[in-house]
C-alpha cells in the first residue's frame, strides 16, 4: 500500500473507519468534502498502514475488503459476491496479507482449487471453472493495483487453462416437450416458456419488473447482466399466454416476474429458478442436464437452424463480442451435416 499517495491513504482509512457508523450516501459526501479540503494542503509523511494493521494479517485483509466494498458499492451484487468468494477462498488457502500475495501463491492456490474435490471422491474442477476463479481473483487484484495498494497484479502470470470446445449443449424439440409435460403448476410452465422465448440470463430475469412487459408486442427492455448494455428481449405468443395465466393466478402485489408460492411472496433467486427446472426434469424421462442457461443456448441454436444470421443472433442474445456468438453458433449441427451428406450423396 506504500504506492498510494499520502492523501489517498488518509481518505481510505477514514472511509473504512466510518463505514461502521455512516450510510453509503453520507460516506460519499464525506469523501468529496475531504478530497476538496485536501487540495488546499500539502502532506509529506505518513505510515503506510494504521499501527494496528501492521502485525495483524486478518485485520489488514479485512481493511482491504471493506475498502473494496465501499469503492465498488455500485458493482452488481452477484459480481461482488463472486469476487469476494474467490478472495476468501484464497485467504483460507494462503495465510498472507493480500498486498503481499505473489505469483507463486496464486499458482499454488489455483492448482489446489482445481483438485479440491478429489479428496472427497469427486473429480477435478473443469478448466472453465478454474478459469472463472482466476478471472474473479484477477479482477480483485486489478482493483488493488489501480488503487495503488500493490504494484502488480500477481494473477496475470497464471496462465489461463486450455479449454477443449465441446459442441453446444441445447435441448432438442423432444426434450422441450417432455419438460413441458413435466410441469405441474402454472409457475413452472411460465418459467419454461419465459426462458425458452427470451433467452435471458437467469440473473437478468431476476431484475425484470412485471409491469415492464409490453403485452401487445411481447417486448421487454432489460439492462444486460454483462456490460450494463440495454437490449430488448421478446416473449412470443405461447410465452405470453402462459405468463398471463400465471400472473392471473397470483394474489400478491410483488413486481417480480417469478415469486415464491408462499407468503411473503419474495422474488425467486437464481437458485430458486434452477431448483424449479431440476424438479421438472426429475418428473420426466429427460436424461440430459437441465439448467436455465441451456434454454438460452437452445434459443440460439433454434435461431441458427432457422437461418438467422450470426449478427442478429448476437443482438438477440446480447453478446458484446461477435466472436463469442460465432464460436458457438457458426458451427453446423450434426443434423445439418447429416442432411447435407445425404442430399449430396451419389
Treating each run of at least 4 consecutive H or I residues as one helix, how many helices?
15
Number of strand elements: 2
In order across it, which strands form the biggest sheet? 1-2
Note the quaternary state here: single chain
Low-confidence stretches: none
Strand content: under 5%
What is the share of helical residues?
40-55%
Distance between the termini: 72 Å
Structure overview:
- The protein has 346 residues and is mainly α.
- The chain is 54% helix and 3% strand.
- It contains 15 helices and two strands.
- Strands 1-2 form a two-stranded antiparallel ribbon.
- β1 (219-223) and β2 (230-234) form a beta hairpin.
- α12 packs antiparallel against α13.
- The longest helix has 20 residues, at 127-146.
- The termini are far apart.
- The mean pLDDT is 86.
Topology:
Elements: H1 6-18, H2 24-38, H3 57-71, H4 77-93, H5 103-114, H6 127-146, H7 173-181, H8 186-198, H9 202-206, E1 219-223, E2 230-234, H10 237-249, H11 270-282, H12 292-305, H13 310-317, H14 322-329, H15 334-344
Antiparallel strand pairs: 1-2
